[in-house]
Amino acid sequence: MRLLPFDYAVRNLGRSPSRLFLSVAGAAMVVLLILVAGGFVRGMSQALRATGGEHNVILMGAGSEESVERSEIPAATPGVLAASVQGIRTRAGVAYVSPEVHVMLPVTVGTGGMAKPRQVMLRGVSPAAALVHESVSLTEGRWPVAGGGADEVIVGRMAGTVLGVAESDVQVGRAITIDGRPWTIVGRFSAPGTVVEAEVWLPLADAMTATKRDTISCVVVTLDPYNEATGEGAEFADVAAFTKTRPDLELVPMTEREYYGKLASFFGPIKVVAWVTAGLIAVGGLFGGLNTMYAAFASRIRELGTLQAIGYRRLAIVWSMIQESTLATAAGGLIACAVGVFLLDGVAVRFSMGAFGLKIDEAVIGLGLLTGLALGVVGALPPAIRCLKPTIPVALKAV
Amino acid sequence: MTTNNTHSRTLSPAPALIQCRRLTKTYKKGDNTITPLQELDLDVPAGDFLALMGPSGSGKTTLLNLIAGIDRPSGGNLIIGGTDIATLSRSKLADWRSTHVGYVFQLYNLVPVLTAYENVELPLLLHSMSARERHQKVSTALELVGIADRHDHYPRQLSGGQEQRVAIARAIVTDPTIIVGDEPTGDLDQESAQAIMNLMTRLCEDLGKTLIIVTHDAKSAAYAKRTLHLEKGRLVEAADLAARRESTVPQPV
Ligand SMILES: Nc1ncnc2c1ncn2[C@@H]1O[C@H](COP(=O)(O)OP(=O)(O)O)[C@@H](O)[C@H]1O
Ligand SMILES: [Mg+2]
After folding, report:
1. Cα separation of A290 and B98, whole Å?
2. Which of A17, A46, B2, B197 is deepest in the core (most CB within 10 A)?
3. Which residues pair with B230 in a beta bridge?
4. Cβ count near B116 (within 10 Å)
5. What value of ipTM does the predicted structure carry?
6. Is the CB of B10 under 6 A from ligand 1?
7. CB of B63 within 8 A of CB of A390?
8. A254-284 burial, b if ≥16 CB within 10 A, otherwise e?
9. Number of separate helices (H) and strands (E) present in chain A
């Protein structure tokens, strides 16, 4: 089948600049929303997934596997684990065993107490936390010290987002109020791509005092990968076997990956809502596009009849109309993707687990571009078919 | 048959280029049936220049569209160059049009986003040929209609007469078997109309093309070799025509 020149489709776009603007801007809006939804879902999933260290195992109280925050285990447990579990990583005589308190508490910036408090994930840690959480690194200041007169905390890179303030308000030396008590920020840390960046860390002892508890939430251990040749190291199954032999400890092991994976699935419905919202808006945009293209095609019915009279098949004409429409929506999609990559990527989003950055990666961009193309095709087909419905003699009579 | 006593039939013993046999077109509108064309018989020999006249709604456009293969008969046969085009599928008919028909419209129907040159080139893109050959054909056609100097102008930059010249170039560029025009001078001033009719005459006389035009204007019709009158979907007897022609039609200038 012989096609109409590509140039014809391109120049048809110029027939009505206002319509062209509508098509391009409409597609850009829809694609941008798809990028936001995709970046949101991927950012959240990846942050939760990345948070789990590859060889880390969380041990928590039996019956509270759903949430470490509800778990309580004796403060002596870490010592037992370090002494009894084979294959825990050791460097320079220090075992990778991190006793931790995980607690969600209302936090405000400053000491005035006027601001509306925000729920923030607090983690009481010992220096061993720096060992087991490899992705965490101090970017400013120093590690907090327990009982050093002033109460000290370090904050993650996303603390400002979580607390709803500018990052300058949570710099080293500033104060935050946790549950009515002032603390001084002595350091900041990063943990790229993980939800840990949204946390506030404080010394384990201070965390226990502040929460009036004598138990800890969990122990995070790092295993040395099992080496068949030397028989050293351990796998998750070994830890699981250990907890079975010591039912008196009432511990449940879970790989850190699995734990955050479960959290991620807990947020599944939010992702569905994000997709459905984006989808509905895309459908709205599609109807707008259908309208615009119909107006464009209906204004040249006589020309469509003429092209057929000359000998062009209707399929060739439909193809040209699809080219025309898709050129506009693809341009809009490209603009949206540029905006996505340069302006949206990494933008911090708060959610109940803390905060994460929108992730506009190749997959999300690919989805955005596909949406742009699909808008063009789906937006052109029904109006094209409708405008080619009249017989040629009828079309030739159109004004 | 009404066409038996026309001179074309007696002049050419070979079968006519266009043969309409009991050609009928009907439209159903609810219980009503409109019959724009009723069992019409017509032969048009190759090289003829035929003008169709008749009151508004008499079926002139319907007949022209059937012959041009852009409409399909409800009954009868329509044999053009040995092919019964009523039997062709929609897409085969489109292909047939691209080689056999050049259509000239009352309102020119040039594609506004294409230049004069590109408009004339459009039908050629349906045929395989080298770019060089295509260029040659377009240039020849533009020159023939005397509009070569305006080849890069867009339709909006041309006068009606110039637009119609481009449209004629577009109709002849593929060297079609027949050229049809539905009131091709209907929207032109008298001077431009004459120029267009002169051009049409040359297509017939110099290039040997077969032309059929519908016209309201007796002056335009006078350029044709013969004129047929339609009334209520039927051809009016030649005897009646002769009488009417004598009394009303001025001679071509
Ligand atoms: N698509 C159609 N549906 C119904 N009736 C039609 C249609 N096209 C033409 N007609 C009717 O057919 C008759 C002849 O029309 P037409 O061939 O256009 O006349 P002319 O060109 O001689 O003025 C008219 O009565 C017209 O109303
Ligand atoms: Mg008519």
Report:
1. 31
2. B197
3. B235
4. 29
5. 0.90
6. no
7. no
8. bbbbebbbebbeebeeebeebeeebeebbee
9. 13, 16
In angstroms, the first-to-last Cα distance of chain B is 33
Domain boundaries, chain A: 6-49+267-396, 63-249
* Sign of the alpha-carbon torsion through A272, A277, A280, A286: negative
Closest CA to A102 of A181, A246, A189, A198: A198
Q: How many CB pairs below 8 A link A and B?
A: 68
pTM over 0.80: yes
CB contacts of B103 in chain A (<8 Å) are: 309-310
Residue A294 contacts residue A387 (beta carbons within 8 Å)? yes
Report domain extents, chain B: 18-248
- Quick check: A391 contacting B, CB < 8 Å? yes
Q: How is B140-177 classified by DSSP, letter by letter?
A: HHHHHTT-GGGTT--GGGS-HHHHHHHHHHHHHTT--S
β-strands A152-156, A137-141 pairing: unpaired
* Burial of residue A194, with CB atoms counted within 10 A of its CB: 0-12 exposed, 13-18 middle, 19 or more buried: buried
The model's pLDDT over B67-84, given as tens digits with 9 standing for 90+, comes to 999 999 999 999 999 999
Q: Rounded to a whole number, what is the distance in Å from the CA of B128 to chain A's nearest CA?
A: 9
What is residue B251's predicted lDDT score, i.e. its pLDDT?
A: 55
Q: With bands split at pLDDT 50, 70 and 90, how would you rate the model's confidence at A64?
A: confident
C-beta separation of A58 from A256 below 8 A: yes
Architecture of B18-248 per CATH? 3-Layer(aba) Sandwich (3.40)
Give A250-291 pLDDT, tens digit per residue.
999 999 988 888 877 878 888 899 999 999 999 999 999 999
**Least confident stretch, A72-81, A142-151, B33-42, B206-215:** A142-151
